[in-house]
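Why should sequence recovery work at all? Because a backbone constrains its sequence more than one might expect. Tight turns favour small or flexible residues, buried strands favour hydrophobic ones, and helices have their own preferences. The token representation captures these environments compactly. In the example below, the structure is given first.
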């Protein structure tokens, strides 16, 4: 898919004849998403550049993702996107800056970067003299990332409430405390929900890292002063995003520790109950074992009140041991 845009009166306008050579010459931004070979060849012939194919991203070989020559500067970044099922996905974006045109190449997403235009309707600065689409895209990337951070923060707030139950009613807390099985099931669901949230934060960190490296490379090139100023603003935005991501990651880690701690407490309660039952039942079992021996000569064998005596002894020892255990706070 090929779409082209130009800036008119500070606003981004799509060019209808996107596949026409004359229309591409007027474009200030060309967006290629899952483009065919013919579409790529048309852009290459019109602008005299090389549209590199989108290969698998190698996060530890970032130097191979950047290049510069007299005709173009090629940059690569990873944009975190959430699909319809909230599955986090790192979308590889190749930015190709020429003298008058910006070309973006993406693969694996139907709408490409133009999806940012729908999500961030006010993201493109509508002011006279604003003629660099790359700057507008950086602003929209920041807005898009802020939206994801807001969603993650909201999800973590919900998980926090379910873990510590401080916003629920007293009746609800008592019911959970009285039913370890119900509490265990709830913690299992919370733990399942925490996993995808953590994945979003990890991929967001990779995205920020990729854009930081991209900006470092771009800073080494000869760029207009206005773009250099915007790069500094974008770096500050990335620093703020990284700080927010670190804070949310710490929150997610704290919640994970809280969940594991509550599960450990529930297991300890179960073990305490089993231990208490075993301790209390020990004296009756000992007494039953003694008087259940089948020796021929036993002094108590012919007692008239032997059976009530044994039962009474069991009751007394059991009650006494129970009171002792309760006195010790077990």
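From this structural description, the recovered sequence reads:
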């Amino acid at each position: 898919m090929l779409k082209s845009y130009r800036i008119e009166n500070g606003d981004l306008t799509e060019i209808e004849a996107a596949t026409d050579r004359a229309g591409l010459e007027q474009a200030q931004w060309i967006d290629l998403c899952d483009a065919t070979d013919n579409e790529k060849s048309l852009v290459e012939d019109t602008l005299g550049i090389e549209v590199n194919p989108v290969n698998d991203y190698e996060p530890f070989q970032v130097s191979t993702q950047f290049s510069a020559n007299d005709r173009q500067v090629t940059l690569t970044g990873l944009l975190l996107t959430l699909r319809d099922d909230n599955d986090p996905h790192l979308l590889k974006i190749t930015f190709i800056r020429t003298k008058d045109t910006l070309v973006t190449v993406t693969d694996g997403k139907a709408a490409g970067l133009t999806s940012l235009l729908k999500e961030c309707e006010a993201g493109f600065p509508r002011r006279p003299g604003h003629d660099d689409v790359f700057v507008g895209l950086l602003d929209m990337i920041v807005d898009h990332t802020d939206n994801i951070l807001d969603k993650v923060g909201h999800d973590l707030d919900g998980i926090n409430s379910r873990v510590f139950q401080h916003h629920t009613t007293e009746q609800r807390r008592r019911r959970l405390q009285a039913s370890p099985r119900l509490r265990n099931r709830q913690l299992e669901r919370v733990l399942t929900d925490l996993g995808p949230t953590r994945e979003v934060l990890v991929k967001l960190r990779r995205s920020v890292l990729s854009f930081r490296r991209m900006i470092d490379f771009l800073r080494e090139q000869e760029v207009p002063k206005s773009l250099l100023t915007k790069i500094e603003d974008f770096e500050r935005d990335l620093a703020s995003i990284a700080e927010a991501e670190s804070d949310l990651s710490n929150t997610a880690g704290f919640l994970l520790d809280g969940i594991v701690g509550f599960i450990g407490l529930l297991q300890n309660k179960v073990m305490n109950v089993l231990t208490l039952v075993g301790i209390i039942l020990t004296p009756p079992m000992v007494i039953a074992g003694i008087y259940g021996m089948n020796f021929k000569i036993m002094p108590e064998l012919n007692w008239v009140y032997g059976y009530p005596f044994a039962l009474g002894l069991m009751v007394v020892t059991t009650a006494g041991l129970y009171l002792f255990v309760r006195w010790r706070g077990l």
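A few observations help interpret the result. The helical segments are 21-26, 37-47, 115-119, 133-164, 170-178, 180-219, 225-291, 306-327.
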